[in-house]
Amino acid sequence: MAQTKACSPTCQSFKCGKNAAVFRRDSVWCRDGEEPCTVAKCMYAMCFKRRLLPGAICGETVKRKTMERDLDDAFFKEEEDNSAVKLKGKALRKLGDQEYY
Fold it and tell me: Which DSSP letter does residue 61 get?
């Protein structure tokens, strides 16, 4: 099972909203605070892929949870009861007060 990873400023998808991130030697510095860039504390941290989650967690490393649902016969019975299409607004004025199946 894969662990979730924290987003880092060296990621290709990372962008600073104030354009204050500067690469210095082996780390990324923030020109605003003159300290190393920390994604978790920065208000201007962004991701091009829109995968940045709260707490600076990279959304690409999070595994999704899926649920399987069984379709009951009651579900299909409800559809049969509401077989008439009800129109509102402009479509109702054009077609009149008729029911379509």
Answer: G
**Side-chain-side CA neighbours of residue 6 (13 Å):** 8
Task: Please state, as a whole number, how many other Cβ atoms lie within 10 Å of the Cβ of residue 25.
Answer: 6
**What is the span of the domain harbouring residue 29?**
14-61
Q: What is the dihedral of CA 7, 10, 14, 18, to 10 degrees?
A: 110
pLDDT of residue 56: 87
Q: pLDDT tens across 55-91, in order? A: 888 888 888 888 777 666 656 555 555 556 677 788 7
Cα gap 36→21, rounded to integer Å: 9
Give the total number of structural domains in the chain: 1
